[in-house]
Structure formats: C-alpha cells, structure tokens
C-alpha cells in the first residue's frame, strides 16, 4: 500500500491486536455451539475485550482524541476536532453462530469528515484501509470499485431487518424492486464488510437503513477512495447522522439509487 500516515499505522496496529483476541475467542465460540451453554454472554465479553484493546492502543497514542464506539459511552476529546469511531466486532450475530464473516472497524473523523479508515477481517487476513486522497487498499493491493454498468449483471448487498424491526415492510419493497433488475442480492450480516466489498468490486452496491455511525464510518471512506459513490436515502442527507446509506460504483449509482428510493 502507499505510505501510510502515523494515524493509519496506529489504527492498523489496534485492529490487528483486537483481531487476534477475537480469533482466539471465535475458536471458543465454535466449541460452545455444540454445548448447552449460551454463547451469547461469552460473545459480549469478547466484544468488550476487543473494544478495550482498541481503546488502550488508540488513547495511548492519541490521548486528546474523542471516542465513539458501539460498546461504550461517547467521550469528548480535549481536541474537539478529532474523534475515533469504532465497531470492535461488526457481525456479532455471525460471530455468535460460528460463521467466519465479521470484522473490526476503525475510523478517524476530523472536523466532521472521515479521513482514515480500517476494516479488518482477521479470519481471512484481509486489511482494508483508506486515507482521504490516498486511495483504498486491501493489504498491499490498490482497490477500485467494479466497472460493471449493466444492472442485470450486478450483485448488491443489504441488511435484512430482524426481531420484528419496523423497517421490514420498506426492505421487502426494496427487494421487490431490485431483485428483478439485478443478478442477485446478498445478506452477509456485517455492514462494514459489505462496504469494503463494494470498494473491492466484489459487490456493485449496498444499501441499508437503521445503521449506526460505527457500522459505516470506515466503510464509506473505503468506497469513496476506491472511486465509488454514496448518499443517504435523502439525497442531501448525511449517512452517519441519518443512519441509512446507498453506495455503488459510478456507472450503477443513479439507476440503483432510483430503484431503492422507489422513484
């Protein structure tokens, strides 16, 4: 990859440390699947432990930065212009069920804009990184979004509402519109990796509602630096604050967004 900044190197180191801890715990979860014990509590502990490792690494290196993470309360930093946005374990339900598809997501925000991003899949040893203006990388390889322009050849990813969430009718309507127009829709249960896969050209696009900032902060920069486009469901909105996103390669974006928005 290109010459990483000091901040990105700190983020990579923190992601690797958390990843090692999670891989060890994942091995235990796979054993728990066949027992009568409930692995849920164990996974919660694994998640919290990963966040603590990331926090130690990042706050030691940058004690003045703010902190927004899934498993803890927000911390305002002495430097109000910079904050970390962290999901220590994106894809918790996959992890809980022994499915090897989950990631560590770390983003750095400066004056309201994400400027550095890491999404690390430790099971596959795939480290997706990006910095503002410096491109998107997977390990040592430069990434670009897919070049597909025919919707019928494209694969899209999304999340499906679970547990009686109120956005189920909207999502079913989305699927009714998009499925006849494309080559398929995937639901792999980790938004950070879905966005990383758009950046890598594996998916042609992604959309989801009811997300949190930590689900997509890093992934959105990956998409942008790989040449992709994204918007909130409301075209002038902000995905990180609105909690929804449409992302795709350049050739597909307008047609894809139009289908998802139903207009």
Q: Span between N and C termini?
A: 40 Å
CATH topology group of the largest domain: Fructose-1,6-Bisphosphatase, Chain A, domain 1
* Strand arrangement across the biggest beta sheet: 1-2-3-4-5-6-7
In oligomeric terms, what are we looking at? single chain
| C-alpha Rg (nearest Å) | 18 Å
- Percent of residues in β-strands: 15-25%
Mean pLDDT comes to: 93
CATH class of the largest domain: Alpha Beta
Based on Cα principal axes, name the global outline.
globular
CATH architecture of the largest domain: 2-Layer Sandwich
- The stretches of 5 or more residues where confidence is low (pLDDT under 50) are none
Helical segment count: 8
- Succession of helices and strands: HHEEHEEEEEEHEHEHEHEH
Q: Could you walk me through the main structural features you see in this protein, from its secondary elements to its overall organization?
A:
The structure is a single chain. By secondary structure, the protein is an alpha+beta fold. The chain folds into 2 domains: about 5-140, Fructose-1,6-Bisphosphatase, subunit A, domain 1 (Fructose-1,6-Bisphosphatase, Chain A, domain 1, 2-Layer Sandwich); about 150-260, D-Maltodextrin-Binding Protein, domain 2 (3-Layer(aba) Sandwich). It has helices at about 5-30, 40-60, 90-95, 170-180, 190-200, 215-225, 240, 250-260, and strands at about 65-70, 80-90, 105-110, 115-120, 125-130, 135-140, 140, 155-160, 185, 205-210, 230, 245-250. The strands form 2 sheets. It has a 7-stranded mixed beta sheet, sandwiched between helices. Helix 4 links the parallel strand 8 and strand 9. The protein is globular, with a radius of gyration of 18 Å.
